Amino acid sequence: MEQRSKVYPKKNLGQHFLNDKAIARKIADSLTGVGYGTVLEIGPGMGILTGYLLGRGFNDFRVIEIDNESVHYIKAHFPELKNVITGDFLSLDIDKFFTEKMAIIGNFPYNISTQIFFKVLKHREKVVEIAGMLQKEVAERICAGPGSKTYGILSILLQAFYKAEYLFTVPEHVFSPPPKVKSGVIRLIRNNVKNLGCDEVLFFRVVKACFNQRRKTLRNSVKAAFDLKRDDYHEFGLRPEQLSVDQFVHLTRWIDEYRIKSE
Q1: Domain check: are 115 and 204 in the same one?
Q2: Average pLDDT score over residue span 73-79
Q3: Looking at the DSSP assignment, which residues form a beta bridge with residue 61?
Q4: Is residue 1 situated within a structural domain?
Q5: Mind listing the pLDDT tens digit for each residue in 23-39?
Q6: pTM (2 decimals)?
Q7: Of 139, 168, 190, which residue sits at a domain end?
Q8: N or C: which end of the chain has fewer CB within 10 A?
Q9: Half-sphere exposure of residue 10, counting CA atoms within 13 Å on the CB side?
Q10: Among 17, 41, 16, 15, which Cα is nearest to 28's?
Q11: How far apart are the C-alpha atoms of 94 and 86, rounded to whole Å?
């Protein structure tokens, strides 16, 4: 595998470059390869993951990189990589560039990691797996379950459609420049849920409304957000972090039925 240069791009755009090859291989190996042949790496930087991912033998492996210096480096040091997209993943038209089921992987820039996962959520029928490294706090939040202090909007919306696993923690000293926080590597695998059995737009609104006032009970947050007059929902005494995905689905149905009857 091509050795990584010690000269880093002048503009790292929030990126902290991994320099531990053992960890890089472990991250690359976290992709299962099940149910897809297309893989997109976000923000390859100096390509420490790229070489290992090329070695996995995926049918269609591409990278997307916004920094021009990194793009030139990748093209020069990995000539076998034919698909290098120059641009911002958040602006990428996934449906235009990809027609098959796919996976996404990367050492995700901390400043856009949450936005990356929300974009994946919008393309959940195409993105069947996502694995990568991000700030440990965000990684734990995505994988947290009901009752956890870190359980919240991102946990519920992603776990509604993906199985989320926290794989391992990465210390600060294996990066250049070292971040001020630890990192976590996670993997999300698409579950079998095609639809939630409720109004999904309303579901998103309900979850967000509840966690915008997470210290209050559902009675206070939901009634205020949706102008409800009834007070008899059986879980109104709970706080939002106590509810599972299924419980939020049931709550959404109840609110929807109430609104229909009130019209």
Answers
A1: no
A2: 95
A3: 39
A4: no
A5: 999 999 999 999 999 99
A6: 0.90
A7: 190
A8: C
A9: 2
A10: 41
A11: 14
